[in-house]
Predict the 3D structure of the following.
Amino acid sequence: MRIIGGSLKGLRLNPPKNLPVRPTTDLAKEALFNILQNQIEFVDLKVLDLFSGTGNISMEFASRGAAQVIAVDRSIHCVNYLKDAARQHKLEQIKTYKEDVFKYLQIETEQYDLIFADPPYDLNKIPEIPKIVFDRNILAPGALLIVEHQSMQNLSNHPAFVEQRKYGHSSFSFFRNATGEQL
């Protein structure tokens, strides 16, 4: 696992083996950030990373200049690893929260420029993520929600769905607030 762009490009992340995670592969992450670099300006971006796990995605956004990255995970070990890694690499824009993501979404009142969710693939509530994000109005106008999930799962029935990109067994579904722009 490594940072693929920005100020920390090339940095290898070595999280403890016992973390309860399935990190986004470097291949899928590289494809995702290639798509995003043509769509958004990373500098000054306000990002919410749900099910943040190792913090691989949070650190990637921070490395690329995001102004604020909020990382939420229910594992104290994941939260502590990311907190320590952010401190070690002077990524002060990363803030971590140990919380159940669905409870966090019910109390969140801020709006974000980009929300990334990488839930456990066996979580049966994955289709609820876009619904809650849009119902709670926590995605800024024109902003993106990206949900990583198993390729066999289809999230296209939400009205804000834009497209699904497949990378082997993993897919990213993209949702855009208030616009129908294609990626």
